[in-house]
Amino acid sequence: MPSMNFSDKFPLSAPKKYLNKRWISLAAIQLFSCSLLMVIPEVATAQANRKSFRICSRDLLSIGLSESEVANACGAALKPRDLSRCVTKIYDNTTEELPAQEILFNCQRVRRVDELGTCVKKINKSVKDTSNESAVLESCRLSLLPENFSSCVIGLSANVGLSTEELLATCLNPNQEISEVDSEEES
């Protein structure tokens, strides 16, 4: 077997024809443009996040929360803009009975932050008795689907003569009477 030298197969002069200025500049331009495309989404995301935290802090400070409460709430929120929207929507659609701290507490403790504000707003606008806004807020928070819960309360209140508390309890746990009867029969 003849000895084969690698340099005989691929002479050093061959790569030079591929390394002319045109190819190098084309490769450099493509690398530069690809790196820009990778950086731009990160910059946009960072600016959107900064803007969300800025909006959250501005909105929560405007309703009278302290700076430390606002910093803790917005800093801990996964979606700070949704949190501030929830708090301000409830605050704007309730009377002075509900303190801003209680509203913030409830908005922080719910899975569907955006739906909680809508639930409280819809129920408070449709129900004539505004003395139980705290119960409405708590019931909307406890509901797994706050928008469906508000539809239930509003729909039943139009035709059923139950009080607001009874409507909230019925829509939150519709099988309550049935389960109480079943447990008495088993005893």
Largest sheet: none
Average predicted local confidence, pLDDT: 79
Backbone shape: elongated
* Low-pLDDT ranges: 42-48, 178-185
Quaternary state reads: single chain
From the alpha-carbon coordinates, what is the Rg to the nearest angstrom? 31 Å
Provide the structure class: mainly alpha
Give the domain tally: 1
Please tally the helical runs, counting DSSP H or I stretches of 4 or more residues.
10
Provide a descriptive summary of the structure in words.
The chain has 187 residues and is mainly α. It has one domain (21-186). It is 73% helix and 0% strand. The protein contains 10 helices and no strands. It has helices spanning 6-9, 21-62, 67-76, 80-92, 100-108, 113-126, 133-142, 146-159, 164-172, 176-186. Helix 4 packs parallel to helix 6 (113-126), helix 6 (113-126) packs antiparallel against helix 7 (133-142) and helix 8 crosses helix 9 (164-172). The model is unreliable at 42-48 and 178-185 (pLDDT under 50).
